[in-house]
Design goal:
Layout: H1 14-29, E1 48-61, E2 64-77, E3 81-85, H2 92-100, E4 108-115, E5 118-119, H3 125-131, E6 136-139, H4 153-162, H5 169-182, H6 188-191, H7 201-213, E7 219-223, H8 231-248, E8 251-256, H9 259-265, E9 268-273, E10 276-282, H10 283-288, H11 293-300, E11 310-311, E12 349-350, E13 357-358, H12 363-367, H13 374-378, E14 385-386
Parallel strand pairs: 3-8, 3-9, 6-7, 7-8
Antiparallel strand pairs: 1-2, 1-4, 4-5, 9-10, 10-13, 11-14, 12-13
Helix pairs in contact: 1-8, 1-9, 4-5, 5-7, 7-8
Bound molecules: adenosine-5'-triphosphate.
Length: 397
Amino acid sequence: MEDEGSSGTLYGEPDAIDKGLEIRDRVAGEGVQVSSGLADPVPADAPEVLRVEDLTVAFPTEDGLVKAVRGVSYALKEREVLGIVGESGSGKSVSSMAVMGLLPKSARITGKVSFRGQDVLSMSARQRRGLRGKRIAMIFQDPMTALNPVYTVGFQLAEAVLSHELMPKKQALARAEEMLALVGIPQPKTRLDSYPHEFSGGMRQRAMIAMAVINNPDVIIADEPTTALDVTVQAQILEKLIEVKDAVNAAIVLITHDLGVVAGMAHRTLVMYAGRPVELGSTDEIFYRTRMPYTAGLLGSIPSAGDTGRLRPIKGAPPSLISLPPGCPFSPRCPVATDICTKEEPPLAPTDDPDHLAACHHWDRLAATDDPTRFFREGPGTETVAGAAGAPVGGIA
Ligand SMILES: Nc1ncnc2c1ncn2[C@@H]1O[C@H](COP(=O)(O)OP(=O)(O)OP(=O)(O)O)[C@@H](O)[C@H]1O
């Protein structure tokens, strides 16, 4: 079999990051755009497909108001891959669920989401259902949350088509077979009759990708699509995802803990911390001209070739989203923080490159050095631990 089943969680495991960097370096070595890795470049004049403006989401709870997302804004062009990176609880999933209209009724949502110019948040439930699965599709970490164990894969794929389009069942099944072939499932005709449990973890995730693209969506939101798979299978699935999205001309919002995944796959990257976007720019900019200390901390914790195997996670933990500290939420962990950082929260604003935004009072200090990760090695906020495989990386746990 081409790939095997899932083997547990790999959050931030060095092998996964190495794999992403290896893909990036391989592609860079061939003179192709580093940031996009496997994806085709996006033409500068490509039309915008999705726009999120100043999105906030809060959940009233017994303990207080959880400010899960605060001021997320981004625009996605046709065929573009936007990586959203951040540690657990940073608001990556909630912001995407808001776009899909999948949050519980109790969620307080403000801001604007536009899909090809249509206001999504003010749509009726029926209009949203029409958008979901057809124009905007979603891939989850665990395919078993989306695949029903009691129906065959072929039936479920055909249903996904028939719920949006009237056509003979035979035609829907033919489309299902075509999609299974597209995502690299061997003997797709026979596999239509398999139940999800008869697939390996990697094959189930391929089936999820088939389900996501079967209606030719404009946008795919992939939330940790490979986190539950082992490293080799992760790379295969990500490569397939990029190949398939180019085949159907979809854009992707790729949500991940794993900077390596973003390095290989995303044209642009949005880094989130404590519910806020803290850095946004081309993936090249984020990796090579980092302007936000949190991102520098994450990058500094990636083991590089020749490293002695010592990882440097960012010391401390993210703040409570119920009682955020005044000023910059990263300041208690930040080696370059000064007084102003504990008093005023910096806006996400242009840096020395107008398309590279950072939420930092001191981005110019990072711009003044070739290696902004050094602040974490030298300054307060650094903790060096023996880097056994599986140790948390960059506070990602
Ligand atoms: N229904 C809810 N009620 C209260 N709090 C919630 C609810 N859903 C999410 N949250 C909180 O919102 C915050 C952001 O969660 P989110 O799932 O977006 O994080 P994430 O960055 O995607 O992390 P992970 O990678 O672990 O999924 C978390 O603190 C989470 O506990």
